[in-house]
Amino acid sequence: MTHDFGFRLALEMGHHFGLPTDRWPASAGPTASFFTIVVNVLEDQERAAQWFEAARRAHHQAASAATVGSYQFSFHDLLEMELDNMRRGPELVFRAAWAALTAPYGFVRGDGVDTWDVYLDCAARACRRSTDRRGVTTSIVEPAP
To answer: Which domain of life is it from (predicted)?
Structure first.
């Protein structure tokens, strides 16, 4: 169900990190794989974009609380709260998508720079690009008038 998600995600990452891909953070490949799982499990790229945006909000909340030094919930807890009103369908689908979205969080943070926010932004834009293109013909031959 990813349609062109993987390709569009690579394009979005290319816009941000540039070419060649050898210069991309080491976590880019595995993160893209996990994000593809999220899109596959949710089976709806618009919904997946909402999940990626919720993850960005949760990440920003966790990062700002850490900066201030106040008590904070973990990113995982904050994400669960962000997604609470988006629960639709079987619980297994929710849990599988949540697990795939949170799995790369730890090793991405090990990159030393805040690439997590960039990855989430790229993923949301890739989903939106895919949903914006629905209804556009991809045929080489234009239909007759």
So the answer is: Bacteria
